[in-house]
């Protein structure tokens, strides 16, 4: 089987990457919520139960589920050098810069021998009181509190959609918008560089060391030759320019055009997949907030450069043009403004399509889900009381690695 192969949003899903939320959620506090991009603190045991049900629904429907933490544990088990390189890089990226603390923390992480336990610990964050230090050796240690996080958790890791995005037989390895989420991409970097199944198998259309930010939630595979990318809070036009140059220049890419869709810059519409997702060959769920004419740019190759053309139109017309047939937009919660705003906040339009017309959704969006059933979709509901507090739905919580052609 190929390592990565995704040319659509709806073709049968064969293999998907998830991350089971872990103790990183226990290191969220009211003071850090905003910086760490959460709106509330999920109750971990319930969040895990909900996530396990998500994975079970996928498996019941023939999808192979792999976990980020397992792939990463396998990656650092490839050789002691890779493990050591990872720990050192992780510490620097966690903003630890003094030689003394780099050494203390290297020894701490290096002492965790089980690879998966080590990976999970790097995700969880670290409290000063977990590390044994001799405070008499340093003024800094004596003046600081003993019960504080010295390494932040990465609570958004269960949104595997964002740090990298599968496009064709490659990935965009993303430079993220926020400091907290930028740390997450280290895992994909190591997996794609060193994991035996992925090393040398995956084209990189964008890199985490590039200058401008782009996130996977903004990347939608319309078909084999057309990619839609949101210009949003999380993805800037410069990143799309850079991606276009790279992807058009690479003979292994089949992408012939990128549609850059300008969406409002706010938290309720943070990514393109927060405002619309494809659910069938001719159907999309949408946030009613993007009805009407949208600013859209068609980016195509022109010699060694790119050509950008503004093609503003209604979403349904743009999609119909590139898919080659009419499409129906189903608004979140129908036309009811209050229900729609409520359900949109809990990702009512953010569905994971696992085959044409078959979608995984949050159970809490009951108004939207009823409408989707009436439209003939197979709606697989997952529990969502706690997971939804992170502001992402089933599409955000999954990264397709392989979809059938
Ligand atoms: N694709 C998505 O819309 N992902 C949801 C990400 C939620 C996360 N709390 C964030 O703010 O990045």
Short synopsis of the structure:
The protein has 405 residues and is an alpha/beta fold.
From the structure above, extract its key features.
405 residues, 13 helices, single chain, three-stranded mixed β-sheet, alpha/beta, binds citrulline, L-arginine/glycine Amidinotransferase, Chain A
Q: What is this structure's SSE topology?
A:
Blueprint: E1 13-18, H1 44-60, E2 64-67, H2 68-76, H3 80-93, H4 99-110, H5 115-124, E3 126-127, H6 139-143, E4 149-151, E5 164-167, E6 170-173, H7 179-182, H8 185-194, E7 203-206, E8 219-221, E9 226-231, H9 237-249, E10 257-262, H10 272-275, E11 276-280, E12 283-286, E13 293-302, E14 305-310, E15 313-314, H11 315-323, E16 328-331, H12 337-345, E17 352-355, E18 358-362, H13 366-374, E19 378-382, E20 399-403
Helix pairs in contact: 2-5, 2-8, 3-4
């Amino acid at each position: 089987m190929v390592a990565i192969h995704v040319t659509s949003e709806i073709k049968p899903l064969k293999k998907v990457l998830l991350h089971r939320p872990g103790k990183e959620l226990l290191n969220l506090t009211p003071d850090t919520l905003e910086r760490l991009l959460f709106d509330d603190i999920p109750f971990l045991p319930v969040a895990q139960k909900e996530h396990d049900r998500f994975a079970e629904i996928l498996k019941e429907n023939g999808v192979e589920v792999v976990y980020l933490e397992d792939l990463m544990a396998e990656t650092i088990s490839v050789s002691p050098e890779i493990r050591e390189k990872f720990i050192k890089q992780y510490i620097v990226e966690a903003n630890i810069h003094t030689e003394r603390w780099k050494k203390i923390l290297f020894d701490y992480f290096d002492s965790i021998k089980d690879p998966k336990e080590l990976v999970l610990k790097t995700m969880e964050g670290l409290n000063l009181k977990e590390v044994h230090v001799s405070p008499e050796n340093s003024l800094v240690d004596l003046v600081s509190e003993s019960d504080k996080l010295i390494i932040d958790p990465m609570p958004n890791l269960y949104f595997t959609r964002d740090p990298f995005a599968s496009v064709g037989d490659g990935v965009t390895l993303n430079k993220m918008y926020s400091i907290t989420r930028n740390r997450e991409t280290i895992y994909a970097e190591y997996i794609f560089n060193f994991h035996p199944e992925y090393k040398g198998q995956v084209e990189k259309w964008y890199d985490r060391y590039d200058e401008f930010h782009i996130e996977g939630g903004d990347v939608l595979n319309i078909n084999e030759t057309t990619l839609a990318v949101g210009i949003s809070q999380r993805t800037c036009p410069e990143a799309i320019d850079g991606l276009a140059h790279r992807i058009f220049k690479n003979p292994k890419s089949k992408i012939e055009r990128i549609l850059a869709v300008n969406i409002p810059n706010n938290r309720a519409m943070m990514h393109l997949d927060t405002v619309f997702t494809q659910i069938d060959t001719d159907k999309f769920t949408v946030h009613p907030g993007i009805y009407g004419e949208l600013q859209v740019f068609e980016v195509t190759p022109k010699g060694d450069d790119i050509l950008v053309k503004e093609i503003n139109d209604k979403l349904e017309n743009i999609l119909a043009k590139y898919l080659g047939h009419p499409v129906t937009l189903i608004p979140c919660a129908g036309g009811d403004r209050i229900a729609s705003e409520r359900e949109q906040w809990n990702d009512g339009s953010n569905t994971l399509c696992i085959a044409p017309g078959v979608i995984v959704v949050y159970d809490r969006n009951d108004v939207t889900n009823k409408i989707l059933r009436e439209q003939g979709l197979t709606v697989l509901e997952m529990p969502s009381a706690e997971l939804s507090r992170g502001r992402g739905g089933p599409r955000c919580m999954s990264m397709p690695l392989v979809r059938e052609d």
